[in-house]
Amino acid sequence: MRPSKGKSSNVTPGPSAASSSQVRLLAGSNETGPDGLLKDITVVDVDEPGPVKKSRADRSQDIDTFFSPSFIKDGKKYRNCTPCTKLQKRPVSFVNEATTLQWHQQATHKADYLKWAAANNFPSMLPQDTKQQRDAVTASKQPQTSLDSHLVSKPQLSIS
């Protein structure tokens, strides 16, 4: 309900027009606090730190630990596996794709990777572990059950 021209702007609508919180907000919308701001306004401190999104470097920390920096060869980016390179005494290169590198970690260096991840409080990004994490989330979002088993037929009443 809008106030008509010439009438006060503090008109509170009836209960059917707005909820009680909206009525309170409209009724007290011109009240000011000691700071001179309207009472119904919350001032957010812009200097207060908000949620911090992990940077790309933080998310790929496992790859950076076990593989050399990327390099370009034949127009593609590659990385050398540091443990394999030390063991075989020659560069062991893989295409610089996170999933490719993580599959290699799972197949060849799983125990070392899990030990490192636990020591560094890093969630395991091995394909097997990420699949289990996805499955756990999917299992927790089970479809809604049916009401059919809870409903019973009632005899109809005849009104005379």
Automatic annotation (TrEMBL):
Polar residues composition bias: residue spans: 1-23, 139-148
UniProt region (Disordered), positions on chain: 1-60, 124-160
Designated name of the protein: Uncharacterized protein
Biological classification of the source: Eukaryota, Fungi, Dikarya, Basidiomycota, Agaricomycotina
